[in-house]
Write a structure and sequence with these properties.
With 324 residues, the protein is α/β, with parallel strands linked by helices. The chain has helices spanning 22-31, 44-49, 52-56, 74-86, 101-105, 116-129, 148-159, 180-183, 191-200, 215-221, 232-236, 239-247, 257-273, 278-282, 295-302, 305-309, 315-320; strands at 11-13, 36-38, 42-43, 65-70, 91-96, 134-138, 141-142, 165-169, 172-173, 205-209, 227-230.
Length: 324
């Protein structure tokens, strides 16, 4: 894949299971006009044997939006990638970083790093099936092997397929003994190793993921990497997406909070009318007002099962009134 614009990956929001659904992505787009948004990891089986619209439908405002796939069978990944392109996604990303045991049982995620030839076959099959970029998200290593040669050779084999975008979670994945949460926190961050990959493959785009939470930290990383990808920070303190967007020149000013609120209320009304549960629409907003007086009451109201049961989008206005 050639002639890609590195600017397109400058600010990304990580794929997070049970987090970055279409409602979360709509909200994040209001906060960051040009950020690249990723779906939750969606397995090939869910697309090939499940409810495709439920998994792939999204709002046009979400562009640029990438579909992250989980799988390890080239033909199935090609078919799923084809569906992603048909639904209008701007990128297909292969998950080679998730360490959960459930994912390992499906023989995909981080454990695929031990089989770079298979990953290369998967990448080639998807590249042959679609015209949009096919990219990969991976870790630096498996378990407690911190040898640079392992990840360099993995990236090298994928690079040989023509892949030119690598999202690097700058930690190892420990496949046994650590939960997914622990895997996001316990294996040490090794930004220097990720930087070495960027230096060794100068024609590729490298996006740094892992431990990034503050605007200054991200701007510093962008001196070395083409892009940064925020995960839990985008969930816990989503306002950082706006701060970064302004710092990068994607937006002239922080979006007015009242404007974002009104847009989300209108969106929630449309979604509820179409059968969505209000709790699913507003859950990504819980951390939005972190640090502001009344933020605890805001969170409490938007997570109160009794309040949410009414499915009334005006709950957002009532919760907003609790802020001071």
């Amino acid at each position: 894949m050639t002639n890609l614009d590195p600017q397109a990956w400058r600010l990304c929001v990580a794929p997070m299971i049970d987090v970055t659904d279409r409602h979360c992505r709509y909200f994040h787009r209001l906060l960051a006009s040009a950020a690249r948004l990723y779906t939750e990891m969606i397995t090939t089986g869910a697309l090939l044997h499940g409810n495709v619209p439920r998994h792939l439908d999204f709002d046009e405002s979400e562009h640029p939006v990438a579909l992250q796939l989980g799988g390890s069978e080239p033909a199935e990944l090609a078919a799923a990638a084809r569906l992603g392109q048909q639904w209008g996604y701007d990128e297909i990303n292969l998950n080679c970083g998730c360490p959960s045991e459930r994912v390992q049982k499906g023989a995909f995620g981080a454990c695929l790093m031990a089989e770079p030839a298979l990953v290369a076959d998967c990448m080639k099959a998807m590249q042959d099936a679609v015209q949009v970029p096919v990219t990969v998200k991976h870790r630096l290593g498996l378990d407690y092997d911190e040898s640079y040669g392992f990840v360099r050779d993995f990236v090298g084999q994928i690079h040989d397929t023509g892949c030119r975008v690598f999202v690097v979670h700058a930690r190892n994945a420990v496949l046994k003994g650590l939960s997914p949460k622990d895997n996001r926190e316990i294996p040490p961050l090794r930004y220097d190793v990720a930087a070495q990959l960027a230096a060794d493959f100068p024609d590729a785009i490298f996006v740094l993921n892992g431990g990034l939470a503050e605007t200054g930290q991200c701007l510093e990383a962008l001196k070395t990497f083409h892009g940064v990808m925020l995960g839990r920070a985008a969930w816990h303190t989503p306002g950082v997406l706006s701060e970064l967007s302004v710092a990068l020149g994607d937006m002239d000013a922080l979006p007015p909070a009242e404007q974002v609120l009104e847009a989300m209320m209108a969106y929630a009304a449309r979604q509820v009318e179409n059968g969505a549960a209000l709790r699913m629409v507003v859950k990504s907003m819980l951390g939005w007002q972190s640090g502001r007086p009344g933020a605890r009451r805001w969170r409490r109201m938007l997570s109160d099962s009794t309040e949410l049961a009414s499915n009334d989008p005006q709950l957002l206005a009532r919760a907003w009134a609790e802020l001071s």
